[in-house]
Amino acid sequence: MGINRFLTQRMIPGCLYAVDPPTASRPRKSATGCVKLITMDGQVKVFHRPVIASELLTEHPNHRICHSDSFTIGQKIPALQEGELMKLGNSYFLLPLHFFQSVLSFVTLASSFSSFQSSSTSALLMQRAFEVHKTPSGKLQIRVSDEFLEKIRETQKRVDDAGVVGRARVCTSAALEKDYRQLVVDSRERQWKPKLETIKEAERKRDARRQRKKDRQDHKKEEKKQKLMNKRQEKKIKKLKKEVSADGKHQNPQHALPPHDRKVKKEDTRKTKGKKI
């Protein structure tokens, strides 16, 4: 029996530890009067009223909520329905969607919760964050230890108290207190969401830009074509003028003679007319 327990503990990651099997009448120890929601970054949100799961999922569309006692090795994690009520005195996990798509194992659980190590709760995880229980059917069930939740709450409270003290040093009036809350506290509580356009809107704007660019190019081509046609028309007009002037000179040969020859020819024509008379 001792060897089996030793081998089981050797297979469990450091953030998990095995405990004695619970008795049939052993209730789950939890704080009454509040709902605790544990996020992937190690934060614990406390609600002093029953909460519908859909209220939290609207802020986290790619996540699901599950009960803290629903981690069973070898089975998929059952998620709460959107309309299901989160009851007072219970703890819940807010996890990414991929958690609920595969069978749970020690390896996937430890690797998934490794993101905690970059936060201030990494030391707490190494101090027995999860309990491993053996169910009456022989399956291993993982629960979040109450000690772990209390230590997280204490850590958050110390951080909040430090922020209040620092704020008291800066804010010396009610107006400054209000401005500080709007700039610092409210910005922490608000979830940042990128302003993204829909695919259809982006495609419509892209098509409009392409059409404007095409219209400008077509307008430039039309102007260039019109200028070329005007130049050709001017050349044709000049050529016709030259041809007309040349034809006029050939029909009246006097214009082709020098001025002196023109006078002599006029006198000759007068003499010939007189003789005929």
Automatic annotation (TrEMBL):
InterPro entries: PADRE_dom
Biased composition (Basic residues): 227-241
Top-rank taxon, per record: Eukaryota
Compositionally skewed regions (Basic and acidic residues) per UniProt: 215-226, 258-271
Pfam families: PADRE
Segments of this protein annotated with the region Disordered: 200-277
Name of the protein this chain belongs to: Uncharacterized protein
Native source species: Spirodela intermedia (Intermediate duckweed)
